[in-house]
Sequence to fold (421 residues):
Amino acid sequence: MASLDDLKKRIASVKSTQKITKAMKMVAAAKLRRAQESAEKGRPYSEKMNNIILNLSSGISDKENAPKLLSGSGNNKVHLCVVITSDRGLCGGFNSNIIKKAKSYFAKLAEDGKDLKIITVGSKGNDQLKRAYSDKIIENISFKESKHANYFDAEKVGKMIIKKFESEEFDVCTIFYNQFKNVITQIPQAQQIIPLNVENSDEDKSEDSYEFEPDEDEILSNLLPKNISTQIFKAMLENSASEQGSRMSAMDNATRNAGEMVDKLTIEYNRSRQAAITKELIEIISGAESL
Amino acid sequence: MNEEFKIEIVNPEKSFLVKEDVLEVIVPAFEGEMGILKDHISIISFLKPGIIKILSKSGDENYYVEDGIVEFKNDNLSILTSSIYNLSDLDKSTKQNLLSQAEEETKKPEINDQSKYLIDQKIEVLKSLN
Fold:
């Protein structure tokens, strides 16, 4: 059995760990509120953008000559996967969930005989993927300097992707990120952005006849690159909210576990202290009796 | 008769401006300036660098934009833009910054005709502001 002194030290160390996790939880909660706010504020932009593209693509007359970003390059051979993760750890299953999702997708691609290229955004994803897929990672971006997700960073990534698409380095592009549902639930998402998946909504769009200036094709070719950046920005916003939410619940758990541990150790400490006292008493009494 | 309509300007970070009492908006559309009044036909167009003028009952406002998309539908004008500045907040040094950035870009050799045209527009507008 551990000595009293050892137990005392251990209790103190668990307590100070608890202090740290508690502080991290507080910080994450404060950051979460901000991240959630900006994720919500960013939503109208991407929704409007989506709507306009939907309207445009349904109005496009010549499907054959549609911009390549919409219709695809005609091949389905090389897949580019953009895995967006965080730059910091200690956030529970946040990063591993995205990686797990991405890895199962990679395995499926390999089964189908497709080529794979990976861009990692955020250093944690890169750390985990470079063990198994180091030869597939073509780019590794991290925005450690930026305090929170901003549009310029997203635009940088977007422009890079478009440049690679134009030089025909890949055919299909998918982004991986965590969608923020609430503090305890974040859903890893795979979203295809090139060629764009135009969802057929149930709404009847036939009555919205727009006038276009200049024509549809030109607007589309101007809009689609912007949409890529917007989608990536949206993913980054969702991700940063998810990261803080995930960290908050992970740290909350850690704090609670530390508390349980302190309780257990304290009981053990008290018991052994009492045992020692009892032992001393017995020794004194039996000593006195023998006289 | 009610002559007002609604305008909403959004940038990626937030909803930048919402106004309900707008009488007329003049936007720098790609093919020339365009004035929009109530009951305009539904239209989608994109912007080149220029000034958005908003005339409303509660006062006129001017904004400088570098790019964006306009959509007008059912008396709702939406403008999506990634770079917008309120002219009254735009001080000299910011203007100077934007101008020197634009001038820097014209010097790049790999620039194509369309972006050159857009940047020239930008420089022209920024110079006219000073």
Notes: The first strand of chain A starts at residue 78 and ends at 84. The interface with chain B takes residues 38, 41-42, 44-46, 48-49, 51-52, 55-56, 150-151, 154-155, 208-214, 219, 222-223, 226, 230, 233 of chain A (CB under 8 Å). The domain at 44-199+208-250 of chain A is CATH 3.40.1380.10 (Pyruvate Kinase; Chain: A, domain 1). The helical segments of chain A are 4-59, 68-71, 94-111, 123-133, 151-166, 216-289.
